[in-house]
Here is the input.
Amino acid sequence: MDVILDAKQIEAKLGQLARTVAGDCANADELAVIGIRSRGEVLAQRLAEMLARELGRTILCGTLDITLYRDDLNDPQGDQPPTVRSTDIDFDVTGKLVLLVDDVLHTGRSVRSAMDALIDLGRPQAIRLAVLIDRGHHELPIQADYAGIKVEVPEDKSVLVQLWDTDEMEQVVIE
Amino acid sequence: MARRRTDKFRWHRKHLLGLRDLSRQEIEHILDTAHGFEQISTRSIKKAPALRGKVVVNMFFEDSTRTRNSFTLAANRLSADVIEFTKKSSSVSKGETLIDTARNLEAMGIDIVVIRHNAGGAAKLLSRTINACVVNAGDGFNEHPTQALLDAYTIRRVRGSLEGLKVGIVGDIAHSRVARSNVWALTKLGAEVVLIGPPTLMPGKVEQLPVRVSYSLDDVIEELDVINMLRIQFERLGGNPFPSVREYSHFFGLTVDRMKRAKENITVMHPGPINRGLEIESEVADGPNSVILQQVANGLAVRMAVLFLVHQAAIEEQRGKV
Here is the structure.
């Protein structure tokens, strides 16, 4: 088990992400940060707070549950689906510049589901993708606009993101 | 709203036949899942692809508008195709049996059967005969699980929790599958249930149910946190269970006068359709304590959750065989 980011490094990488996004979106009044349940939710909230400090205004933030949009729901060989939880976005996404946030970009299938779920809620002006780790091995033509780190992780290993809000520790490990 | 999560829990039933055999955890899992479906109905595109390419059959051997429409809409919102099957327009009127009808439908490749039937146990019988998932939408005087689930969901939504609440169910308990399913759901979730009605409308072995019984609404009205008024089902009543409709209404109707003696925040429910002025006065049905229309809206979320969960259990069963 290799630790690739500790708590301090996670904080630093998120700070870097926030500054880059803030630089790109300084004029975007309609910026909204939306996290994919469950780790993306936590990261989105942290990023929204950092962006609010960088840009000096409050940033809309919401959470997307993608369970009903997963492409392996009806696949007998797929994983068991997680519990359906609620999507909590209390603003209209139409016209917004949505920063979609997830912890790990791997196959790209969660992001595909998330984009479909988002577009059922309205028509964003644009959707950008921010992830803490891009581990490679994408299976769909989906790339991250912002990645905290990029590491090639072999298919037989998994990347585990643990955050204080959902876990007992905060770190990113490969196991 | 803070929710108790049951993340580690896995739903494994591919049929929902009744609530009697369900654990508290299973019932809570359905309600938690329903919460996630609620917002689909409030957004501009009221659809999610969870049952895309699947077929749901509504087999209704008894009249129903609310429940049938609710199931149809729930299936549609999950992107399933729906076949509407009613007794009048089918081969049943030509003498085909329930099982044969279901097997024929199944041969067309259906995934979920929603059945309402006047015989208790019809849903269970069907579940033993076909491979598709079976959801009971009311069988005889036995159970109507999705109605009780939406009642429990509504109470939880309004009151936060059912733990320790006193819930009165008033009316024709003997002929009410709604009452029976409610007893199982509410008591398992920690509420105390009081069945209220004239002795002639109490079921035979009522003392075997985990409930209190009262033959006088006036005796207990002051204690109740929730009151669920059942419809007088004239179509099911044989003989003369009460001397007159006026007399029933006088003793068991939820009137403005009676409401004055109830707790100020009492939650007023009714499974519909309402006989206004009979079991409930219009001012009460439309009043601030009434959640009758919320029940209807919540019914949709609960039925979406049930369709989703039974279908996932069927997929899970295939996973076991892969």
In short: DSSP finds three helices and eight strands in chain A. Helices of chain A lie at 7-24, 39-55, 109-121. Strands of chain A lie at 2-6, 31-36, 60-64, 97-105, 126-134, 146-150, 159-162, 171-174. The interface with chain B takes residues 65, 67-69, 73-77, 80-87, 116-117, 120-122 of chain A (CB under 8 Å).
